[in-house]
């Protein structure tokens, strides 16, 4: 019996990695990183989930069971960091587009010089 | 009152070392209204304060043992009230303070150098702001005792470094380099986070020391170990994921290239911390150690062979940085390979680790010097291409001598510091496996060959008419170079003292797994 959420995590990470490896468009690469990051968020959240429990924000909780708060804190932190990374990467993508007029990696100067 | 304040500073030392650059980074842009100099003076001032605090902290670590600090606790020294650590804990032992001292010294010198080097650019306040953030990230990674906190500081470091690499935003290459760096570092950070999630899912712990005590070495732990090792090897710029190093170091402003060297080395520290403290007792750690040794060998060889044909002075030095990282991986990897064999450890393992750790500080110094000298050449001539340089030795004699010092040091000739650490690595690794040692020596010779080429094409030869007006660099840029050159010669002349003072405590701290864990649990 495989937990469906962990299977989803594995599938999403493989999709993200294959995007990173096979795509040449840098917007797609940013998307690949985002997919990996979201799947790790899903993994963290599903680690802390307990069936039938409440959010860990009550003083007088209606039921005794609560989900784990730490993975949610980790996820929140990762979402914030992810936002910063994505914003920075997309702004770099804008600059690259302004400079080279294309989003394809094949046309980059450093790539050409090295190959 | 005076005594009270002193006690306050000493009690909160580990937190202050991270907090001061972090807060100073956000104040720096506000100071622009007082002129550009105000920002640089502010950054230099803050980094000097941090440097002093790190020295005091290091002194206390040597004197009183491991220093620890629970963030946000009413009594910071109270780490685990109910037997389990609940807060983020900073834990400073000898290796952390060694790395902290190395990094902050290089960043401080780079900052002094930038005061003149970056003067002509308009948005320097952002530059200093990011530089201070980078310092905060490095100090955080060195001093934290918490896995997730390490991930956060890794991201702080990556984002600020990417911003700095892209500082010459009018050049497409710099943007490319920053993008590449950002892709690599965010992937490695996500791998770290995934490994943290795997560990948290099993043990419910994030603290490194508590995790180390609770380990059961399940299959998931091994997956986490593989993820962590590959992430940090990726981030420290070892072959096979070295391609970002050449671009990032080559395209960043020269003082940033020098700071990036220590930023990569802090990932090496994280790698060693994970391998020794978390997984030190794992029976299969030898396999990981062999992987680290092979990564080291590949880095040494590929780095130096790729450096040979380069025409861009900074790109060439960046490939040498990869190659030198290999020496550190080799030295410490050999120590890790024999960690469970006490006889071999005493015979050559500890010596190999001392060589590797000593090489970290030596590499930070001479590579910092070389990058700053390259920056000086670019500052005066405006070109990075070695073919366009020539005859600069007459015009910039002090720079030429400083370059010579750095060059002889990186190739491992006596009496410079590179010789001291490389000799220890050769001798100890020879006892482990002679072939590894032979490869290391061949790489050293190739390094010499490649740097001789740089020296000849930049400083000797016919003077070119277009460089008639080239002068020696300004005094404020010479100061950090002279300090580095002085330290290189000092470390080369008295390696025994430095080993005893700095390196041996650091290696002992890395091996003293029980001591690190015992502080928290």
Key words describing this protein structure:
heterodimer; A: 115 residues; mainly alpha; Helix Hairpins; B: 521 residues; 21 helices; globular
Kindly describe this structure.
- Chain A has a single domain, classed as Helix Hairpins (Orthogonal Bundle), CATH 1.10.287.3510.
- The mean pLDDT of chain A is 86.
- The N and C termini of chain A lie far apart (48 Å).
- Chain A is an all-alpha fold.
- In chain A, 70% of the residues lie in helices and 0% in strands.
- Chain A is elongated, with a radius of gyration of 19 Å.
- With 521 residues, chain B is mainly alpha-helical.
- Chain B has one domain.
- Helix content of chain B is 77%, strand content 2%.
- Chain B contains 21 helices and 2 strands.
- In chain B, strands 1-2 form a two-stranded antiparallel sheet.
- In chain B, α3 runs parallel beside α5 and α12 packs antiparallel against α13.
- Chain B is globular.
- The mean pLDDT of chain B is 90.
- Summing up helix and strand content along with how strands pair, one would put the structural category of chain A as mainly alpha
Topology pattern of chain A, helix = H, strand = E: HHHH
Q: Assign a percent range to the helix content of chain B.
A: over 70%
The largest contact between protein chains, plus residue counts on each side, is:
A-B, 31 and 32 residues
DSSP helical segment count of chain A: 4
Share in β-strands of chain A: under 5%
Please give the radius of gyration of chain B in angstroms: 22 Å
- In total, the number of domains of chain A comes to 1
DSSP strand count of chain A: 0
Continuous helix count of chain B: 21
Proportion in helices of chain A = 55-70%
CATH topology of chain A: Helix Hairpins
State the major sheet of chain B.
2 strands, antiparallel
Strand arrangement, major sheet of chain B: 1-2
Rough shape of chain A?
A: elongated
CATH class of chain A: Mainly Alpha
Distance between the termini of chain A: 48 Å
The CATH architecture assignment of chain A turns out to be Orthogonal Bundle
């Amino acid at each position: 019996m495989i937990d469906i959420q962990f299977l989803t995590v594995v599938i999403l990470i493989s999709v993200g990695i294959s995007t990173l490896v096979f795509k040449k468009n840098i917007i797609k690469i940013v998307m690949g990183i985002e997919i990996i990051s979201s799947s790790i968020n899903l993994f963290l959240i599903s680690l802390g989930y307990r069936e039938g429990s409440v959010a860990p924000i009550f003083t007088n909780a209606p039921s005794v069971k609560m989900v784990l708060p730490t993975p949610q804190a980790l996820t929140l932190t990762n979402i914030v960091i992810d936002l910063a990374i994505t914003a920075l990467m997309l702004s770099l993508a804008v600059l690259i587009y302004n400079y080279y007029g294309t989003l394809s990696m094949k046309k980059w100067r450093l790539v050409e010089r090295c190959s | 009152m005076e005594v009270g304040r002193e006690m306050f500073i000493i009690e909160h030392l580990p937190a202050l070392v991270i907090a001061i650059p972090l807060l100073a980074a956000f104040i720096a842009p506000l100071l622009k209204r007082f002129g550009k100099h105000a920002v640089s003076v502010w950054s230099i001032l803050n980094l000097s304060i941090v440097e002093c605090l790190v020295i005091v902290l290091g002194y206390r670590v040597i004197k009183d043992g491991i220093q620890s600090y629970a963030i946000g606790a009413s009594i910071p020294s109270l780490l685990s009230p109910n037997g389990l650590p609940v807060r983020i804990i900073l834990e400073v032992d000898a290796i952390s303070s060694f790395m902290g001292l190395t990094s902050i010294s290089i960043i401080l010198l780079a900052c002094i150098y930038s005061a003149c080097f970056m003067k002509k650019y308009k948005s320097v306040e952002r530059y200093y702001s990011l530089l201070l953030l980078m310092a905060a990230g490095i100090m955080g990674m060195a001093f934290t005792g918490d896995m997730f906190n390490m991930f956060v500081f890794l991201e702080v470091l990556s984002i600020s470094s990417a911003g700095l690499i892209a500082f010459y935003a009018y050049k497409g290459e710099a943007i490319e380099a920053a993008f590449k760096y950002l892709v690599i570092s965010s992937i490695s950070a996500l791998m770290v986070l995934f490994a943290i999630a795997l560990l948290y899912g099993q043990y419910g712990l994030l603290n490194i020391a508590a995790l180390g005590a609770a380990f059961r070495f399940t299959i998931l732990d091994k997956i986490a170990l593989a993820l962590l090792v590959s992430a940090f090897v990726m981030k420290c710029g070892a072959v096979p994921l070295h391609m970002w190093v050449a671009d990032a170091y080559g395209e960043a402003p020269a003082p940033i290239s020098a700071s990036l060297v220590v930023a990569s080395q802090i990932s090496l520290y994280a790698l060693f911390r994970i391998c020794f403290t978390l997984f030190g007792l794992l029976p299969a750690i030898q396999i990981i150690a062999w992987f680290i040794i092979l990564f080291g060998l590949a880095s040494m060889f590929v780095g130096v062979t790729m450096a040979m044909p380069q025409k861009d002075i900074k790109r060439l030095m960046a490939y040498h940085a990869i190659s030198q990282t290999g020496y550190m991986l080799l030295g410490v990897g050999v120590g890790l390979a024999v960690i469970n064999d006490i006889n071999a450890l005493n015979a050559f393992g500890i010596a190999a680790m001392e060589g590797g750790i000593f090489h970290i500080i030596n590499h930070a110094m001479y590579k910092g010097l070389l990058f700053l000298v390259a920056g000086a050449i670019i500052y005066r001539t405006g070109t990075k291409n070695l073919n366009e340089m020539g005859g600069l030795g007459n015009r910039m004699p002090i720079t030429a001598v400083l370059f010579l010092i750095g060059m002889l040091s990186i190739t491992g000739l006596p009496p410079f510091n590179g010789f001291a650490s490389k000799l220890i690595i050769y001798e100890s690794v020879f006892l482990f496996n002679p072939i590894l040692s032979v490869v290391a020596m061949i790489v050293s010779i190739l390094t010499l060959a490649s740097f001789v080429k740089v020296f000849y094409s930049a400083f000797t030869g016919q003077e070119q008419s277009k460089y008639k007006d080239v002068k020696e660099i300004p005094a404020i840029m010479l100061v950090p170079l002279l300090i580095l050159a002085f330290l290189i010669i000092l470390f080369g002349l008295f390696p025994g003292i430095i080993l005893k003072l700095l390196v041996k405590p650091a290696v002992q701290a890395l091996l003293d797994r029980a001591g690190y864990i015992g502080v928290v649990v």
